[in-house]
């Protein structure tokens, strides 16, 4: 009777390795058969993919400097990213929020609104969605309310706080705006400094103002040099210091400028209305406002230093048409010496600086 003998096949190490590789390939092929496309998984906590951060920076710069970035390729790339499946709802929401920002910058408000709805449906903690949403608000008050509601829900909040600064600035709440900017901007990239920097400087310059400047003054109150005409216009709009001349009636800026020029508020009788004002021009204007037509006040320092015949401020000589004005505004704390010794008279006076000096001068005495 024949016996059937069962025995284990002896394999060489090379054959065993080949079988292992083959098995791995079978498993891989079987797995791949069930996966149609690559899936993007969660980024590390608190970290956005680098490409999204770059797109955000581009859009912030585009908002700060309209036309500096081409929106079409940015929007096309965002559409590609939005079409890729992802298990990360926060990332999906950020892509949609960036797409809404790009649409808003392109003037497509309805498209931006639809994209925001999708972003907030995916994940309500994306702060960029709230920033864009606030800019679709119909009133400054509504804009502020959107940002204040969103702040507690945001993952970070720096972007919301920076936008909150602009909203508060528009409502004339200068100190609150300044606090919001100073809390947010150190935590954001340089592109946000470009976007909100001017607003922050404006809030700082106007921090002692009890209300927002009038719309007529807004164009003059910038970091650019104020014009000769601008000084007269802002002084009339923002103070009552010229009422003794105008009788409280609103004079046209041109007529007021000519009247003040004829009264010696400008050293150069031929000064052009659109010429930029220097620090010495601002000092003379403000000292004329403070003196209120009293010659004893306006020439106080010429009398005081007559025996010396020398100025205590090296770059504003005794006998200069600006001498009394410079010493007056410095002594009364309206303006200051740039280095504790010199006045730097020929440096242009910015609109924001002039406004701060004006408020102090108008309250003098």
Helix and strand arrangement:
Blueprint: H1 13-32, H2 50-64, H3 71-83, H4 89-105, H5 109-122, H6 127-135, H7 140-150, H8 158-170, H9 174-184, H10 190-205, H11 215-218, H12 228-238, H13 243-246, H14 253-262, H15 279-291, H16 295-298, H17 300-304, H18 323-331, H19 351-362
Helix pairs in contact: 2-4, 2-10, 3-4, 4-5, 6-7, 7-8, 8-9, 8-10, 9-10, 12-14, 12-19, 15-18, 15-19
Can you describe what's shown?
The protein has 2 domains: 54-205, Alpha Horseshoe (Serine Threonine Protein Phosphatase 5, Tetratricopeptide repeat); 215-362, no CATH class. The protein is an all-alpha fold and 365 residues long. The chain contains 19 helices and no strands. The longest helix is centred in the first third of the chain and has 20 residues, at 13-32.
Quickly count the helices.
19
Relevant CATH superfamily of the largest domain: Tetratricopeptide repeat domain
Total strand count, please? 0
CATH architecture of the largest domain: Alpha Horseshoe
The overall pLDDT, averaged over residues, is 86
Give the total of domains: 2
Rounded to the nearest angstrom, the distance between the terminal CA atoms is 132 Å
What labels describe this entry?
single chain; 365 residues; mainly alpha; Serine Threonine Protein Phosphatase 5, Tetratricopeptide repeat; 2 domains; 19 helices; 58% helix; 0% strand; elongated
